[in-house]
Each structure stands twice: as C-alpha cells, then as structure tokens.
Design brief:
The complex is a heterotrimer of chains A (363), B (396) and C (82). Chain A has 363 residues and is mainly alpha-helical. Chain A has 14 helices and two strands, in the order H-H-H-H-H-H-H-H-H-H-E-E-H-H-H-H. Chain A has a single domain, classed as Hydantoin permease (Orthogonal Bundle), CATH 1.10.4160. The longest helix of chain A is centred in the N-terminal third of the chain and has 33 residues. In chain A, 58% of the residues are buried. The mean pLDDT of chain A is 88. The longest helix of chain C has 23 residues. The radius of gyration of chain C is 20 Å and the shape is elongated. The model of chain C has no long low-confidence stretch (mean pLDDT 84). Classes of the chains: A mainly alpha (363), B alpha/beta (396), C mainly alpha (82). At the B-C interface, helix 1 of B face loops of C.
Chain lengths: 363, 396, 82
C-alpha cells in the first residue's frame, strides 16, 4: 500500500462533512429556490444519492477490505475494464476539483478581492492544498479535525445574530403543490450528496473500522441538517428574493446588525469559505493523487503531487470561460456526469459483486 | 549538505513570497485614499438623465492612520467634514463612473446607509437604480431608503445640528419606528413581490433652505406601484399603514373621549397585527386583528382611570381611533391608488395558494374590492402612577 | 503579455523540477516517468491555454456527451424560473 497513514473514523466523518458542505451552502440556495420556492429548506432532506452512495461504499469495502472502489473494481469486472474506470475516476476528480477551485476563486474575486487576478487566488489555494496533500491522509484528516470547530462557530455566528430579522411567514404555505417542487429542487443537491463516494477512498485508511459506518452516516445527517438551517435562514430573510442573489447566504451575513456595532460580517463568511474550501479541495486533491498513483502502479504518490497541482490550476481555468457557463454546467451536465460516475457506476459494480458472491457461495 | 542548503533557500524564498502576498498589499487602499460615502441621493434631471449625488465624509489623513475601517466608536478629535458631489449619467452605473472622475479619492460604498430618491425619479420609476443597487457588491442590503419631496440632492446638502451628518439623522429617525423604516432589501422585496406595490418613507426639509438649522423630517409615505410612485400618504394615514403592516413598535396615541373635555394620551408598549384572509365564492375579504398593550401617560379629563369601567370605555375609544386611521389608509390605498401596500396579496397566497395562482393576474381588479374588517383589541394595562387627575378643573 | 505568461509558466516548471527531481531516487524509474509525463502535459496545457484561451474544454465534452439530457434540463429550468 502506498499510503501508510491512518485516520480515525471520526476524522473521516469530519473530512467528508467539510468536503461536501461549504460549496453547497454557498451556491445551492439560488438554484434550489428556482424549483422549490418556499420549500427550499425541505429539499436537503431528499438525500437519496447520498444514501445509495454511502451504502455502496460501505458494502464494497466490507466485501473487499482495504480496497477503494477503483481497486475493488479490478477485482469485480477484471483488469482491463478496471483500468479504464481507474483512469476515469482520478481524471474526473481532477476536473471536478478544478470546478471547485474555480468556484472558490470566482467567489473570492467576485465578492471581495475585485482587483486581484483569478490565478493568484486559485494558485495560492492549490499550492497550500498540494502541500497538505503531500503530507498524506493523516495531515488532511487532522486539518479537518482542527478546522471543524472553527467552521461551526463561524456558521453559528452568522445564523444566530440574524434571527431577529427573520420573517417566519416567508416559509408559508408549506408545500402548496405537494412534495414535487422540493424534490425537483433537490436534483441539483444530488451532486453534493454523490460526493460522499469519496468515503470509499478514505475507508481503507480508517483505524477503527467498526465505527466507520456510524461516522459516515452521522456526517450525512450533519450535512443535511446544516443545509436545512442555512436554507431556512436564507429563505426567512430574503423570501422571494432568494433566487435573485448569486450567493444568498453571503447576503444573509451582510445583513446582520446586532446593536449597531456588530455589522458587516461578510468577513466571517469569507473565513468560513476559505476554511471549508481548503478542506474540500484538499480531500478531493488527495483522492486524485492517490487514484492516479494507484493507476500508474507507483510506489509513492508524493512525486506526482505538484505536477497534478499544476494541472488542477489549469483545469480550474479551463472548465468554463466565465461564471455563468460554470453555473449552467454545474446545474446540467456536471450533475449528470457526477450521477453517472458516482452513483450509477458504483451501484452497478455493487450489483455485479453481489451477484458474483452469491454464485460463488452456491457453487 | 548541498541538498539541505538548497532546500532551506527554497523554503526561505517561498516564505518571503508569501510574506509579500499575506500583507494584503496587492490592492492596498488606505483610508485617506477613499471617499467614504455616507448617503447617496438620486434625482432625475430635466432631460431624463440620472443625477447621482453623494455625501462624502472626509477623513483627515493624520487622524485616520490608526483607525482602519471601524464603524463604531465616537469620532476622536474634530468631527470630520462632509461634502456633497454629484454627477449626471445615463443610468446609475454611468453616473457613478462619472462621479468618480470628479473625485480624487476612490468611492467607497460600504458605509453608505442611506439612499434618497428624488420625487421626480420615483415617479419615473425606481426599478433601474434598484437594479444597480442590488447587483453591485458594494451597496448594503440594510441601507435605509427614502423618497424626498423635491430634489434628493437638497436633502444631502443639509447639515443638521444634532447628528454627525444627515445620513445618521435619517437613519436614527427611521429606526425609532414612529415612521416607516424601509431597508433596501425590503424595498426590493416589495417591488418584486406579489403585490408589486411598495411604501417608502417621505422626507421633507423643515424650515428654509439657507437656514443653518434646517433639518430633514420624515413625514408621510410615498406609495409605489410597479416601481413607480403613484401618490403619497400623509402622516396620520401612515400610522394606519403601519398598523396594517404590523410595523408599529412605539408611539403615543392621544384621544378625546366622548362626553368629556380634555384628552387622554396613551403610550404604546406592544402591538401585533394579524391578517386573516377569507375567500367565499367571489368575495375576497380580510380580517385585520390588532392586539395592542398600552400605558396611560397623560389624562386631562375628569375620568378616574383607576376605575375599570372607564378603562373599558377608553379602550373602545382607542379602537375607534385606530379604525379611523386604518380606514384612512385603506381608502387611500384601495380606492385612490389601487396599490396593495399592506401585503394582502401575500396573506391570500399563504392561505389559498391555489386560488391565488388562478387569480393572480386579476389582483388589480380584486384588491379594491377586498372587504376589510378591523378587530382592534387595545388593552390598557396600567394607569400610570396616578389614577384621577390630581388637579381640579378650575386649575387647568 | 502572452510571452510574460510563457515566462511565468517556464519559471514554475523549472522550480517544480528543481525541487522534486533530486528527491527521486535513481531506482524509481516509474515515478520518474510519471513525473516527467505529467509535468510535460501540464506545461503543454498551460501553453495551449495561454495562446488559445477559448479552446473547448472538458465541460464542452460533457455537454456533448449528455446533449439530449442537458437540453431537456435546460427546458425544465426555463419553465420553472420563467
């Protein structure tokens, strides 16, 4: 095995939480609102893809202990198809991480550092993430353990002071057209829930395997709850305007005013964003590097960290010419691609593995 | 040996690069490079262009070096000077960029808490400037908005004696909740909402132009329909609007009870308004239930206000007074302006979403015919420190 | 401007190689190849992006792959937000 580090089950849960949530808080309310309207806060409950993906990764790991989905794939469908999938996965992680880096820098540049070139922002975060990923899974795991309390404190610092400004009537009537709009709104969210497949790449390094199942499910639950809270707060503050703002939750942070001196808190949001995006990019980048090293049968993944980091920066430039096309792609083709790759393919693999095992037991 | 040395050099180089970046000097801006805007006014010129005026708070370079970007705390030393500059442009963004050309410092919108729209512009429509103000990252969603009688620039030119600047004055006055307090976010919500009608407090200038003690005053309300100002409502009816919109937080009501001479004044402690819509067949009606708690603060009548019977009577009188005010507001909004400024549309939608969706295009026809029933329940909780008037009638 | 970017890319590549290459042991043939290939791909892509920033990217590829579904989703989104 090329990774010698070990993480605890709770570290894995924290990594997954931070690897999924930050971008979901920022960008999803606007898209979800288009479909779900005032049922915006119900949408995160429909986390179907998250459940499927977690179930599949846990089961596959139980069938093939110590192997992630790509390695297990070679055992299930044979060497050649396994190699193809083993190539697609790191490539897609690289591409998808490029989107995340781009989103991160677009936000930082669009809302705060207007005059700073995009490449400076994306380049610096990728450099930091590359250094962290080079340190191995243990380092990334400890970072998320360190960052999570800060993340939650900052989140509460935005959510609690805004309470006096909330208008509860904004959420009424609840489900006027049944549950359909809220489910439609949840389609985009499936992209984020599918990212739980990352668990499959982390499971082999968990020291206390018995707790890993519980930890992943708690992580999913925490993501759902946090999204419900953030969507609800956004909705109760902005009402009909939610869909019009690019970053509704940022507007929430900007609106806080406690006793006339606790104001202009968007810097808090910026802190959340940088911390969260750092863990997210780190985890995804680590998976990319690990997957690529395994595919090439390297004895160590460290040498390819920086070349892949360079590629990551380039991908972040390459994914879309401008922000509008980026959001459009996220809402359409990227969602489809991620559902195919993270949900359908692992699901099929699991079915094949299950049938094979049944046949093998019978014979 | 060679590699370790090379490595440490590399680490040092990387660290120093980071030191350069982390200092934030990339797009460094000192406080005295900024023109801090405290209030902005928008007017329409004769040839239908937009005139943007800004009130700039001048920070003197010497006193600002230690105090970066703070919002709180009293000003140290001499109160800073404020100046007004304005520029004309095709639209908001154009005017803003032209305005920048007149300034030696870069415009900074982050502290702008007040936007005043001139009456002429409001009549022409606020949709265009509001579009810029919500899209651009700098203007605050929490800034207060006003419509001025006359030019907005004249309001900005005032230097009222009590507060630091006219912006502070307007903001504090609207915060006291005796008049409407409308934030930019709320205006956007109202303009884009179901009713397409909005209310904005109306600012007037008290006393003559040249008088140094002239100051702005919030008096009445401008009513907007589809983004355009269609009329205004006086002070008394504004209270009615506030009752109906559940925005009354404090205030003093003075009534003259029947069969007695003199007045009783009552201070409002708590008030809550509830809109209960009904649709029966083709008839849309709404019940407005107002619950209020008050204290008596002055009594110049002969009534003994420690007597529960008299209190009952006073409460009925109060309810009648509230009804008068709300009726005034309703008559104006329903009959004259046809602007649903009371959020009736939302109330109907929340209770009857299906019916609403069928009829939303006809709302302009329905709204004037909505029957409004007022149930006012003012409760007087305490008579104050005295019961009966201490002084005999011949002393008054 | 373009040439400044090229110089920048060259500088980044030189720093990367100078940093990593000495750490690779002579017997790590596979790693050396992987490193060289990935760095070369990175450099080439960087140059391409400098001179042809409008070059179709992976997103367009995905769009093409899922064309019928994307069309349907676009239609759907428009219907909802309209």
């Amino acid at each position: 095995m090329i990774e010698k580090g070990k993480i605890s089950a709770s570290q894995m849960g924290k990594m997954l939480y931070l690897a999924i949530l930050p971008t979901a808080i920022l960008t999803t309310p606007a898209i979800t609102f288009k479909f779900a309207k005032q049922d915006l806060w119900i949408s995160p409950i429909w986390a179907l893809c998250g459940l499927i993906v977690i179930f599949v990764s846990l089961r596959l790991h139980r069938m093939y202990p110590g192997l992630n989905i790509v390695q297990a794939c070679e055992r299930i469908v044979g060497r050649f198809p396994g190699k193809i999938i083993g190539f697609i996965f790191p490539l897609f992680y690289l591409y998808f991480n490029g989107i995340i880096v781009r989103e991160y820098s677009e936000f930082v540049v669009g809302a705060f550092l207007i005059r700073t070139p995009l490449i400076v922002v994306s380049g610096s975060i990728v450099l930091v993430c590359a250094i962290a990923a080079r340190g191995g899974v243990e380092i990334v795991g400890r970072f998320s353990e360190l960052i999570l309390p800060a993340f939650i404190t900052l989140f509460l610092l935005i959510v609690v002071p805004i309470i006096p400004d909330l208008q509860v009537t904004n959420m009424l009537p609840i489900m006027p057209e049944g549950i359909r709009p809220s489910i439609e709104g949840a389609i985009v969210l499936q992209t984020w829930f599918s990212e739980f497949l990352t668990a499959s790449f982390l499971l082999p390094f968990v020291a206390d395997q018995k707790k890993s199942q519980k930890s992943v499910y708690i992580s999913l639950l925490a993501v759902i709850l946090t999204l419900i809270v953030s969507n609800l707060v956004t909705l109760l503050l902005l009402g009909e305007l939610t869909g019009n703002y690019t970053y509704p939750f940022l507007t929430v942070a900007r609106y806080i005013n406690l006793a006339d001196f606790f104001t202009h808190l968007e810097s808090l949001f910026m802190a959340i964003w940088v911390l969260g995006a750092f863990v997210k990019i780190c985890v995804f980048f680590y998976v990319t590097v690990l997957g690529a090293a395994q595919w090439m049968n390297l004895s160590d993944y460290r040498p390819i960290v920086f070349p892949l980091g360079l590629l990551l920066i380039l991908f972040s430039m390459w994914v879309a010419p401008n922000f509008q096309e980026l959001t459009h792609a996220i809402a359409t083709s990227v969602t489809l691609a991620i559902i195919t790759l993270f949900v359908i393919i692992p699901g099929l693999l699991f079915c094949i593995a299950w049938v094979k095992r049944r046949l093998w037991i019978k014979s | 040996m060679g590699t370790t040395k090379r490595k440490s050099v590399l680490v040092l180089v990387t660290l120093s690069i980071h030191a350069l970046l982390l200092a934030g000097c990339w797009d460094r801006t000192e406080l005295n490079d900024l023109a801090i805007i405290t209030a902005a006014g928008l007017d329409l010129t004769e040839d239908h262009q937009l005139e943007l005026s800004v009130k700039i708070y001048l920070t003197s370079p010497s006193s600002s070096s230690q105090q970066m970007g703070g919002t709180s705390g009293p000003d140290k030393g001499a109160a800073g000077l404020s100046v007004v500059r304005s520029a004309v442009g095709l639209n908001m963004a154009d005017a803003a960029s032209r305005l920048q050309q007149l300034l030696s410092r870069r415009m900074f919108w982050g502290q702008d808490e007040v936007f005043v729209f001139g009456e002429r512009l409001a009549k022409e429509g606020l949709a265009e400037p509001m579009e810029f103000l919500t899209r651009h990252y700098a203007p605050r969603e929490r800034a207060n908005v006003f419509v001025s009688k006359g030019a907005a620039k004249d309001v900005l030119l005032l230097n009222p004696p009590i507060e630091r600047s006219v912006a502070d004055m307007l903001r504090e006055m609207s915060k006291s909740q005796t008049g409407l307090n409308v934030k930019m976010k709320e205006l956007a919500q109202m303009m884009a909402g179901r009713a397409k009608a909005a209310v904005v407090p109306l600012v007037e200038i008290e006393s003559e132009q040249e008088n140094p003690t002239s100051f702005p005053l919030i008096r009445g309300t401008a009513v907007l329909k589809n983004g355009k100002m269609v009329g205004s409502v006086n002070d008394r009816a504004t209270r009615g609007i506030m009752w109906l919109r559940n925005e009354i937080k404090e205030g003093t009501l003075t009534i003259s009870p029947n069969n007695t001479k003199g007045y009783v004044s009552i201070q409002l402690l708590r008030a809550h308004t509830e809109l209960i819509p009904h649709i029966q067949g083709d008839e849309w009606s709404i019940t407005v239930r107002i619950n209020a708690r008050d204290d008596i603060v002055e009594n110049t009548t002969d009534l003994d206000l420690s007597n529960p019977k008299h209190i009952k009577k006073l409460e009925t009188e109060l309810g009648y007074d509230m009804k008068q005010r709300t009726d005034m507001a309703l008559a104006k909004a329903q009959k004259e302006l046809n602007a649903d400024i009371f959020r009736f549309a939302d109330a109907f939608y929340r209770k009857y979403p299906k019916k609403w969706n069928e009829n939303k295009d006809r709302w302009d026809d329905i709204f004037p015919k909505v029957k409004v029933k007022l149930e006012a329940n003012p409760k007087i909780s305490r008579p104050g420190l005295t019961g009966k008037n201490l002084f005999k009638p011949n002393q008054r | 401007m373009d040439w400044a970017a090229v110089l920048g890319i060259a500088a980044v590549l030189v720093i990367m190689v100078r940093y990593e290459w000495p750490q690779l042991k002579p017997q790590m043939k596979r790693e050396k190849t992987a490193y060289a290939v990935l760095t070369a791909v990175g450099g080439a892509l960087a140059l391409l992006l400098v001179f042809y920033p409008e070059m179709p990217g992976p997103t367009q590829g995905l769009d093409a792959l899922y064309k019928p579904l994307v069309k349907w989703m676009d239609h759907f989104i428009e219907k909802r937000s309209g």
